[in-house]
């Protein structure tokens, strides 16, 4: 392929914040007496805050338990817990191989972007001192649909001025891999629990990321 851009997911790819989303949802679910485990959590990766809560409610057959206002209040509480966790992030939390890959991409003239539906993405990138490593960041403010919709990856490609077929997307979630493939891009899956669409390249951790390998 003629790769011209790399598009990175944030949570679980650039930094291991996926575990903090899990812990924050787990606290809220426990408080509300709702079942929630790692398997259900897999389905929340790459999915917006409200949709994540709706999935937890669906799993518990409790979709009708809370009204709209109450749901807004509860997801705000989940976010307060999450923000508490990410307030401790430092540049040393960037996952192995990520800085090396962004540097190698820059050196070789490839564009780079972040595709995260998280409203906390700008704060996380800033705590990691990683914002300046990317040519473009598409966060929740720039898209209307969560992954698995391809919108966020297409917004990145457009902003970078690169055709989707020349983009490589890197993701840790099933919804993210589906979004990359639906955007017509090559997908690299990091430790992804695959159930539907297969990534083009499967890696078990970000330490295995190698520019030659993922663009060959
Ligand atoms: C994604 C995470 O990056 O962001 C999801 O994979 C999360 O787990 C989503 O729900 C929304 O994040 P936030 O920070 O806006 O609640
Ligand atoms: Mg992710």
In brief:
With 216 residues, the protein is α/β, with parallel strands linked by helices. The chain has helices at 18-32, 38-44, 49-59, 68-86, 98-107, 121-127, 151-160, 174-182, 211-215; strands at 5-8, 111-115, 136-138, 167-171, 186-190, 201-203. Helix content is 43%, strand content 12%.
Describe the fold and architecture.
This protein has 216 residues and is an alpha/beta fold. The chain has two domains: 5-15 and 94-215, Rossmann fold, CATH 3.40.50; 18-86, Putative phosphatase, domain 2 (DNA polymerase, domain 1, Orthogonal Bundle), CATH 1.10.150.240. It contains nine helices and six strands; from the N terminus they run βαααααβαβαβαββα. The model has no long low-confidence stretch (mean pLDDT 96). The chain binds 6-O-phosphono-beta-D-glucopyranose and magnesium ion. Magnesium ion is lined by residues 9, 11-13, 18, 45-46, 172-173, 176.
